[in-house]
Specification:
Layout: H1 18-21, H2 23-41, H3 48-59, E1 63-67, H4 74-85, E2 89-93, H5 100-104, E3 105-111, E4 117-123, E5 130-134, H6 141-144, H7 146-153, E6 155-158, E7 161-164, E8 170-175, H8 188-191, E9 194-199, H9 205-215, H10 229-241, H11 246-258, H12 267-272, E10 273-275, H13 279-295, H14 303-314, E11 319-320, H15 322-326, H16 331-344
Parallel strand pairs: 1-8, 1-9, 2-5, 5-8
Antiparallel strand pairs: 3-4, 6-7, 10-11
């Protein structure tokens, strides 16, 4: 990464910047991330894009919503990332009868050796570093909302007391898009907490053949730990310190504003979008572009990063009108057309 002399001039960073002085540590961090990614890819076949996007979400310090048909490796991807990144991972299987206390924890009344009674807080599975919320849309809205404070503030409140969560803390939630009976759609406020919506598709023929061959043997490949929690925190710090070129930042802001019916100049957006991405979407896209640049060993993000991440960052932050749904309009098409118009101008 340091083979490029100096930072791009448009970023405004000089040779004496703190990031330049930490170039050796940055190079080592990028190398470790590459090894971690290769290890995950050796376990999860045919989902390279999903692996990259999920890693980008973690490096950005955010949460990831994974959507895909059953059997595509969503849970395995989350478990493998926890092992490879050296994070304490836990899993919650969301069901209609799951209660908030099953996630956050609860207080129990205990009697000590001096016969005095006192409440003791027993931590729930949310007290980890990588939480797999499996089939999150099967739980009731009350239970889903129990994750809101944890995802945004990295702490939970129980019985009037706040309890801090371990650092780093990330939620990888999964949804099954095929079966909607008995599910509760996530509200917009909670969807907006997810930095990325990662969609897992069916693997191609070669990848599927490799999956079947590798996973039906007597000995299956197991992930090895490549990083520690401190390495992940250091990588997240480097992501926020990467310079952002003004032209890239302007494109991010323009894209988010053009996707809102109140401020757009596009008739399609004005007619088909009920509400568009907010400021948090622009923040998320900025961080994700930085993380992708660092994962690929580059000093600063480019417009290619915006093109690659616009859909997973923005698509779950849209609300289509009833007319748009009746006409068969898709959020992906609207985002792609809006981005193309900005890049062509």
């Amino acid at each position: 990464m340091t083979n490029v002399p100096g930072f791009p001039e448009e970023t405004g960073f000089s040779q004496n910047s703190s990031l330049e002085r930490d170039a050796a540590r940055l190079d080592a961090c990028v190398a470790r991330l590459g090894e971690a990614r290769d290890m995950v890819s050796s376990i999860i076949f045919g989902q390279d894009q999903a692996i990259d996007q999920t890693l980008i979400g973690i490096l950005s310090g955010g949460h990831v919503l994974m959507i895909g048909a059953p059997g595509l490796g969503k849970s395995l991807l989350a478990h493998t990332l926890g092992k490879v990144l050296g994070l304490i991972d836990k899993r919650i299987q969301f069901t209609p009868d799951l209660m908030p206390a099953d996630i956050l924890g609860s207080e129990v009344l205990e009697e000590g050796i001096d016969s005095k009674r006192a409440f003791r807080f027993i931590k729930g599975p949310v007290f980890c570093q990588l939480l797999l919320a499996d089939e999150i849309n099967r739980a009731s809205p009350r239970t889903q909302s129990a994750l809101l404070q944890a995802m945004q503030e990295r702490e939970v409140s129980v019985a009037g007391y706040s309890h801090s969560l371990p650092a780093p803390f990330h939620v990888l939630a999964t949804q099954n898009p095929l079966e909607q009976e008995g599910t509760y759609p996530l509200p917009e406020a909670q969807l907006d907490r997810f930095l990325l919506e990662v969609r897992l598709s069916y693997p191609d023929q070669d990848a599927e053949r490799r999956i079947v061959a590798e996973t039906t043997r007597h000995k299956q490949p197991r992930p090895r730990q490549m990083l520690h929690a401190d390495d992940v925190i250091e990588a997240q710090d480097f992501v926020r310190r990467l310079p952002m070129p003004d032209r890239v930042l302007d494109t991010i802001i323009s894209l988010c504003r053009e996707c809102r019916p109140e401020s757009t100049s596009h008739d399609n957006i004005r007619r088909h979008v009920a509400w568009g991405p907010g400021t948090r979407a622009a923040q998320s896209l900025s961080l994700a572009c930085r993380a992708r640049a660092m994962l690929q060993g580059r000093f600063a993000p480019s417009h290619d990063d915006i093109a690659a991440l616009a859909l997973p960052v923005l698509r779950h932050r849209f609300g289509l009108t009833y007319g748009a749904r009746a006409e068969g309009q898709s959020v992906d098409t609207l985002i792609t057309e809006t981005l193309a118009s900005l890049q062509g101008s």
